[in-house]
Amino acid sequence: MDKKVVFSDYPTNKYAKKVDWWTSPEGIELIKGWRQCGCTFKEITEHMGVDIRTFRSWRKKHPELEEALVIGMEITNTRVVNALYKKAVGFYYDESIEELVEGEMRTTKIYHKYSPPDVKAILSWLYNRASDMWRAIQPTIDVSADMLSAFDEVLVSIRNTARDSQDEASLGSSLASEEVGTQEDVEDEEHEGS
């Protein structure tokens, strides 16, 4: 079992109170680091060896504590967003091979590789960054009776227009074939007459 790091493990000789230690540059860096690792406030207070209510009161009195928590989390979120984006669009990376050469480990080969886009990363990105367009379940739309009747009128109008266009097209093609037939008849008569 891992040993938890608590306040008593840190140098306290130059600090009269715990709050003085945790608001010092060293304490702030530790808190920021724990937040970057994804620790919750409860876990951070356990590491610090203080009650969560005490920690809340310190955060109100010492803005540097609040800033450390926010900055730590922003850095973590930025790293995750960048990693997800990279995985979603694909990326190139170098892989080195180390071998034992003359008694010591040396890099002997470096391969330039490509990691193709990952479908799950793409979906995750789209669901979270463009959820209005890429949500798995789209919201239902409330349609009133007036909207339905207006929609029906539009559909009827489209059908009538399509039918009229089709009738005109078929009428035009039959007239064209009659004209061609008539022209052929005229040509035949001219040939017969000659």
Number of helices: 8
State the domain count: 3
Return the average pLDDT rounded to an integer.
78
Kindly state the percentage of residues in helix: 55-70%
Count of DSSP E strands?
A: 2
Taking pLDDT < 50 over at least 5 consecutive residues as the criterion, the unreliable ranges are none
Structural class: mainly alpha
Note the main sheet: 2 strands, antiparallel
Topology summary:
Layout: H1 18-22, H2 25-36, H3 41-48, H4 52-61, H5 63-89, E1 91-101, E2 104-115, H6 119-129, H7 131-134, H8 145-193
Antiparallel strand pairs: 1-2
Helix pairs in contact: 2-5, 4-5, 5-6
Give a description of the structure:
The chain is mostly helical and 194 residues long. It has three domains: 7-87, no CATH class; 90-139, no CATH class; 142-194. The chain contains eight helices and two strands. The protein has helices spanning 18-22, 25-36, 41-48, 52-61, 63-89, 119-129, 131-134, 145-193, and strands spanning 91-101, 104-115. Strands 1-2 form a two-stranded antiparallel ribbon. Helix 2 (25-36) packs parallel to helix 5, helix 4 packs across helix 5 (63-89) and helix 5 (63-89) packs across helix 6. The radius of gyration is 38 Å and the shape is flat.
List keywords for this structure.
194 residues, mainly alpha, 3 domains, two-stranded antiparallel sheet, 65% helix, flat
